[in-house]
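Example record

The entry below shows one chain as it appears in the dataset: sequence first, then structure tokens.
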Amino acid sequence: MRVPMIAGNWKMNTTVSEAITLVNEIRQGLDEIKGVEKVVCPPFVSLAAIRDLIKGTSIKLGAQNLYFEEKGAYTGEVSPLMLAELCEFVIIGHSERRQYFNETGEIVNKKITAALKAGLKPVLCIGERLEENEAGKTEEVVTEQLKSSLAGIDYPGDFVIAYEPIWAIGTGKAATGKQANETIGLIRRNISELYGKEAAQDVRILYGGSVNAANAAEFMQQSEIDGALVGGASLKANEFLSIIRQTAEIR
């Protein structure tokens, strides 16, 4: 039985003081919810402060990105060794990284390799653009992203995949539960081809893209969907708590 996960990706939002306030608003409520793995992913500058705030709770911590080198003359970058002392998870290959920072499958692959070496658990993001979806290329694009991201990597074990159709991220236009379930089923079949049926049944695959308290139940009721990577709604305490409570009740 796969334990559902709800992860909040705060993106480039919240100062350190705002991050502390938000965690203080959700900490007790999140810790009381059982049967769901709960993860918050604040900006780098807040990781240490949030780590201290959630110590001793069931809440997990994740980063939003990393660089694939352990150390060196890479001004402004954050290495996997730095993150390994602070958090457990790291988001890799988010569409905003691919779109705005030109991250290719090769770069994503290097980052996953580096994260695993450091003992971090990657949350690998994949998803198609609107024009690709409308052209019927979802399967082709998602399969290529998955395989290029994991090329040459032995089964990573406890890692997570997030299917995030780019046309649904931050647009308010979420995929339907049925659409998301079908694509996540495709991803699971690809994992089976890469690593075997047992791995395909073990790996958790989340949906991301305009998930909120109003539509969360639709996604959580789907057999292939193991949770959600939540963007804007994770910055609203009541919304985020509601999504996680609904997940616990359904799953």
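Notes for this example: The chain has one domain: 5-250. The radius of gyration is 17 Å.
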